[in-house]
Amino acid sequence: MPITLDELKLSDEPNQIRTKWKEIKGRYKEVMRAKNVVFGEGMGPLLDKRAAQWKKIEAWQDRKLPRVALVTAIGKAKVKSELNTLVTNGTALETTARGYLGAIANLGNPAQAELTKALNAIIDDAEHDQSVGRALLQDLAR
Predict the structure, then answer these.
(1) What would the pLDDT profile of 46-60 be if each residue is shown by its tens digit?
(2) Do residues 137 and 62 lie in contact, with contact meaning Cβ atoms separated by under 8 Å?
(3) DSSP structure string for 60-103
(4) Cβ contacts of 132 within 8 Å, gap of 6 or more
């Protein structure tokens, strides 16, 4: 079943995930340092960008307009651009999180287990962003 802007369900989760990630990562800072595990700075900005994209989509929905009227009000090119950003950011976020999974492969538990769980949740969210963005782009093309 296709996803449309009219039917999309949102949560406040995108705004909370960076805080959760920082907390879990901070909890195992010493273990990671001892094992020479260093994450790049890529995850934080991608999580921030993700939250910003979902905030824009939520603002669109707050207008309570049917899809056609909403796209007309915002502008088709703008909607398409924002959805493409959601997809490309989701792709970058997934790639970054998968790279981090490789970096913690030999960290040991409980750090490895908790970080893996958090990264897998981020990957799931990134994949969701990609599929929702693509579905909404298809809906927009109709």
Answers:
(1) 999 999 998 888 888
(2) no
(3) HHHT---HHHHHHHH-HHHHHHHHHHHHHHHHHHHHHHHHHHHH
(4) 3, 8, 86
